[in-house]
Amino acid sequence: MPDLCVIEGDGIGQEVIPAAVSVLRAAMPDLHVLPAAAGWECFQQRGVSVPPETLQAVRDCRAALFGAVSSPSHRVEGYRSAILTLRQELDLYANLRPVRSLPRLSPRSDVDLLIVRENTEGLYSGRERLEGDTAVAERVITRRASTRIGRAACRLARSCGATRLTIVHKANILPLTDGLFRDSVRKAACETGVESGGVSVDELLVDTAANQLVSQPQRFGVLVTTNLFGDILSDLAAHWCGGMGLAPSLNLGDGIALAEPVHGSAPDIAGKGIANPIAAVLSAALLVHHVWNLPHIADRIENAVRTALEFDLPVVENRLAPDLTTDAITRAILARLA
Q1: Catalytic annotation on 79?
Q2: DSSP classification of residue 219
Q3: pLDDT at 73 over 80
Q4: Dihedrals φ, ψ of 35, to 5°?
Q5: How far is CA 317 from the centre of its chain?
Q6: Higher pLDDT, 213 or 78
Q7: How confident is the model at residue 190 (pLDDT cuts 50, 70, 90)?
Q8: Domains (ranges, CATH) in the chain?
């Protein structure tokens, strides 16, 4: 029986995650769900964004589905982002952000790429300090983390049938940190023999990669990069699947994972019943595929989403009709899953 820790989080997370769980239950009737708390609201109530029992619940289940977090834009004493805490405490070192064209929503029909982002260090290491009137943030790149994400990217490139693996960096300006990252990933690719399996390995500067993701996204297979670059590039690439509101992701560690839609907590529409659950549903499908190793069920869920978009849900100028409710979208997916 698969176990799933469900963390709704803040804002629309409390609407889209129940919708995604209902789809999972329809596809996997034996699923066992364990609810847990994390996020800004949790911090306000309990003084901690991720309680110890939530971390333990994820460790016990080995799989979690997380909704969204509302983080303040200013420093709050004692607060640390719930999702950053989960990623670092659980060593979820690989962030997978697939971008696939979706029927009637995507600006083009031939995009199918995966951005693999190092998820535990870089500029998100949390090393910030004030030195008088100067604020300093330290960018941490280690050989261990870079090699590990390189091996993960090679494994994923093989498993998804990609023919191109692109290392994205800025080693011309940051020769020590990005040079270490690039060289470690190159070495991992050599050691895993990924090129002998038909995957070509190349590299791009991050600004060039951004330009090509805009102009010719269909040329990419798998991209692997550092934490901040991966965050920005994956949000940019989400344009090709219909926008960030439709983009799924998976935080993957060794034998443990946490799925989350890319969108935020959207406080302006929270509680109105109009949040789009598709990103949460597709994120849940990533868990099914990569954690429970049930690709046929993951494909059923993804195909139900695609078929509902193609035939059932009203679309206006490449966007879902604005009066669609969370419940209506969920019911359309469930009907196609039956």
Answers
A1: no
A2: G
A3: no
A4: -75, 150
A5: 26
A6: 213
A7: very high
A8: 1-96+242-338 (3.40.718.10), 107-241 (3.40.718.10)
Q: What's the rounded Cα separation, in Å, for the pair 125 and 274? A: 35
> Which pTM value belongs to this model?
0.95
Annotated active-site residue 299? The verdict is no
Strand (E) or helix (H) holding 280: helix 278-290
Alpha-carbon span 223 to 281, nearest angstrom: 23
pLDDT, residue 284, reads 98
Place of tokens 């509101």: 245
Q: Report how far residue 228's alpha carbon sits from residue 140's, in angstroms, rounded to the nearest whole number.
A: 11
Single out the catalytic residue among 110, 207, 254, 299. 207
Residue 93 appears among annotated catalytic residues? no
231 is catalytic: yes
Q: Which of 241, 259, 250, 239 is nearest to 20 (CA)?
A: 259
Output the pLDDT for position 75: 82
Give the whole-angstrom CA distance, residue 178 versus residue 184. 10
Residue 102: its pLDDT value, please?
97
